[in-house]
UniProtKB/TrEMBL annotation:
Record-given protein name: GNAT family N-acetyltransferase
Transmembrane spans: none
Biological source species: Clostridium rhizosphaerae
Any Pfam family: Acetyltransf_3
Signal sequence range: none
Every N-acetyltransferase domain range: 4-182
Amino acid sequence: MEEIIYDNYFWQNDLVRLRSWHEEDWEWMYYTGFDSSLSRLAGYKIDFPPTVSGAKEYSKKVENCAEQNGNTVFAIETLDGVHVGRIIFCIDSERHGTFGIGIRIAAEYQGKGYGTSAMKILLRYGFMERRMHKCSSTVLGWNEASIKMHKKLGYEQEGILKENIYLNGSYHDEVCFGLTIDKYLENISEK
């Protein structure tokens, strides 16, 4: 097989590359399923114990950028090919031009800029290729790393849903963020 040249490739930047989810990525799903803190941050819940068959079934369902209910799943890799996370492009409403992005970075790769870099790729895709108007996101009120990332990307805090999420025996605030195409364009022109 010929070597792939990524010099002019839309789906990468200086830190990460997005690729289609492969059926073989079930192992990443399975092993990160044992980190309950990731489940709380990404899904606002505790998942049932991971199973090999469940991870394989999920990977088979979303492989090769297969859209599932408006969601498309990508693997996040370093430029050296290390699988560090998963990112999901979520169409909320094609009619209204709204979308979201869900992201999960394995604990050992958090805080290295991989999530922010992957988000930049999907924001560019949503706004510049899909003609979307707004990207919305919610974050647990105590998830300082995610709040910082959203602000760094130009999202504006639009509100707080007080005591909206129940986890680990108590209620937690949910912070709502939004990024419009105008704010996105303003943010990238400043850099």
